[in-house]
Design a protein that fits this description.
- This protein is α+β, with helices and mostly antiparallel strands and 342 residues long.
- It contains 18 helices and 4 strands.
- β1 and β2 form a beta hairpin.
- GO terms for molecular function: metalloendopeptidase activity.
- This is Peptidase M13.
Length: 342
Amino acid sequence: MTNGAFMDLYEQNQKQIQELILQFSTTPQQKGSLGQKIGTLYNQMMDSVRRNKEGFQPIVKNLERIRAIKDRKEYQRVTAELDRRGESTMMYGIGVSADQRQADRNIVGIGQGGLGLGTRDYYLNDDAQTQAVRKAYMDYNTKLFTLVGYDEATAKQKADAVYAIEKRIAEKSYSRVQLRDINANYHKMSFDELCEQFPGIDWTTVFWVSGFPAFDSVDMGQPEPLHEVEKVLAETSIDDLKSYAELRIISGSASYMSDDFRKAAFAFSSVLSGQQQDDPLWKRATNLVNGVMGNAIGKMYCEKYFPESSKKRVLELVRNLQVALGQRINEATWMSAETKAE
């Protein structure tokens, strides 16, 4: 039985990307160079002996920062600092994109987020598959807390607390259908209006520690879940808030630490995907490098596997298809002359 053309192309692509990476990971590279960064990242992921020896030590400092938080104001500052480093510790997303009402300008955007399961349906639906996913998610989160040293009872308590926070946010989050409504997801306001209408979030601190320069306006994509985040930050105990941030750090690194973390991560993801066997380590290492340094890898890939001669061949193929399509349109008897011209 064959995998099909698309899977064959995917496998071929994976091997070609690995070949590009290996030229840097198997030979000495100048310190600080792009090649050195690519090779080092790949080799670190491939070094399972080192990862198993280290366990969760790579994230201990970040966990300690969370555990040392004393109040809610400090919580918002620390989680914003960690979120900037890719830890996803905030309960919403911030970024910059084109203004939907003025496409020649960029605007700061704020949007719903904070859900470990990604979409609200997993928290609100009650079909058998969704219930299975929720159970697997709770088991996974409990396992992660035990892997960083908590006893079973404490781990379950912390996992329950995190889920309670996420469900509150999910109940106010937009559905996938609602997210497709451009008008319903565009709420432009000034920074002062943002601070006035959403006072429960320390926006000045959040944007400052996130590295944003001063700006005048912002697009609040989904106001309702952000108002719920305000309530969560005000009403949830500081210990439960810290459990939420802890879990974001642990789960974000689970696939890149020791094998017991990866085993737990795959057991959960297999419930979502149906995949029965984990990818080999070289594929996971290749995907990691490609994910972190995709632009650089993409440029190298095109230079080696898609040279200018290949580009010309593809353009010629497209032009031939356009000519053939034009001929078919001209020969169609059911089309009017006006429609053919269009």
